[in-house]
Structure formats: C-alpha cells, structure tokens
Amino acid sequence: MSDSAARPETSRERLLPPLVAEDFGPEFRVVARGGVRRGIRLERAFWASLKHMAERRKCTIGMLVEEIAESHPDQGNLTSAIRVACMRGLAEESMELRKLASIRTINAILVACPSPAFALSSSKKILTFNTSFQQLVRRQLPNAPGEDGRQDLKLALDLNVTDVFARLDANGDTPVTTGFVIGAGERRYRGQLSAVRAPVTEPELLMAFVFNG
Length: 213
Description:
Layout: H1 3-6, H2 21-24, E1 26-33, E2 36-43, H3 44-57, H4 61-71, H5 78-100, H6 103-112, E3 117-121, E4 126-129, H7 131-140, E5 154-157, H8 161-170, E6 176-184, E7 187-197, E8 205-210
Antiparallel strand pairs: 1-2, 3-4, 3-8, 5-6, 6-7, 7-8
C-alpha cells in the first residue's frame, strides 16, 4: 500500500454550514387564509424560512402563502413559487445586513459619537476615526501626526487585541475597558478606552471609545 493511500484525507475548511438531515424531511401542512385552505408539502428548511419571513413582516404564514399564490396564478406549482420566494427573501435580508455590516456604518457610528473614537483592526491598525479623536491627537501630540491624524502614530493597548475579542466572546459582547498609549516620535499619551465589537464579520474589528481624553 502506498503512503498516499494510507494517509487519511486532510480536512478542508467548510464553505457552507453543515446540512442537517432534518431540514430535508418533507412536511405536509394545511395553511388557511381567508377561508381558503391549501395543503402544502415542503422541506422543513423552507417552513422555517417562511416562519422567519412571517415574523419579520409581523404576519402569518398563511398571509405569505396567499400573497405568493396571488402573485403566481399561472405558474401552477405553488411549492416551487414558495421555495423561490424563500430564497429571494433570504437574499434580500442578507443584502440588507451586508449594507449594515460595513465600514460605512462604522464611520457613521464614530461620527455620531461626541467622544474620541476609532476603529481598530486585529493587528492594532487604526482604520478610521472621528473628529474628536483627531483633535485629541493634535492636542496631546502636537505636530506629530500628519494631516490625516495617523501618520507615524503608534498605538499600544494594555490588553492584547486577541484577549479583548476573547473577553467579548465570554461576556456576551459586554464592553471591555483597557488602558492605551498613543505615541508619535518621542511624545506619548496614556488614556483609557471602552472597546466593543464592530458590526462587521470580516475583517474582525473593534470600535474603541476614549472616555478620559
């Protein structure tokens, strides 16, 4: 037997969440709306999707099915129309969430904050900041950074960034307080900040709010 045959296949990173066998099982339900009763057989995953859509829209599954049926009177296959509607609904929701989970949203949050605040990457790189933070840097480190407020600016946290994320995971995303030092050239400024997870999935970012600057 060759070495290649003896070695087990190396596991690769999953591209999708694991499929659950229960989601494939067909389930028959009777949906009633306005005196009309419809018997529908769908995979449980689509029933779950319909329930989620109904909860978001504050309506019943029957109301959704009626709307889908009225929108596709000539299609004949109501179950196919329901599946397509579920996929469309999930795609639209995903797009809405992607718009919210963006650096643009982070910028808006920082701009709305009256105290000095900035967004920090896992490598401790300041990606964006508000005017109050820029003013803090200029006041505490005069003439040190460039016009954008970041050139030659170095940041150190008392806690490692990895530890901050770990504490957020452990404490239900309760803000983590830590000391920090910013410096440029020979000048240093020490303060404290409160860190929370930024509403983005990739890359993983922190939003830091200075509370004694």
